[in-house]
Amino acid sequence: MAITVYSKPACVQCTATTRALDMRGLEYRVIDLTQDATAMQEVTEMGYRQAPVVVAGDAHWAGFRPDMISQLG
């Protein structure tokens, strides 16, 4: 399953999310929303207004969600 973390610099919840993914040994890619206008538009169209936004297969959510991360992989 492909996991993408849409992040922003100096984002505490973004760092917590990537650390939790690392601790579970999950592979993911990070896209910086401040550097990628297309990605910013995509997450906005999904209805999100905060970072991080995590897309994992068919699931997606915003914020640090250890409950959702624990269901991955």
UniProtKB/TrEMBL annotation:
Q: Decide whether keyword Transport is in the record.
A: yes
Q: Which Pfam families match?
A: Glutaredoxin
Q: Does the keyword ATP-binding apply?
A: no
* Signal sequence, start to end: none
Do you know which SUPFAM superfamilies this protein is assigned to? Answer: Thioredoxin-like
Q: Biological process GO annotation list?
A: cell redox homeostasis
Instruction: Kindly state which keywords UniProt assigns to this record, in alphabetical order.
Output: Disulfide bond, Electron transport, Redox-active center, Transport
Q: Where is the Glutaredoxin domain?
A: 3-61
Looking up CDD domains in the UniProt record yields: NrdH
According to the UniProt entry, its GO molecular function terms are: electron transfer activity
The record's similarity note reads: Belongs to the glutaredoxin family.
What is this protein for, i.e. what is its function?
Answer: Electron transport system for the ribonucleotide reductase system NrdEF.
- Listed name of the protein: Glutaredoxin-like protein NrdH
Q: Which organism is it from?
A: Antarcticimicrobium sediminis
The uppermost taxa in this organism's lineage are: Bacteria, Pseudomonadati, Pseudomonadota, Alphaproteobacteria, Rhodobacterales
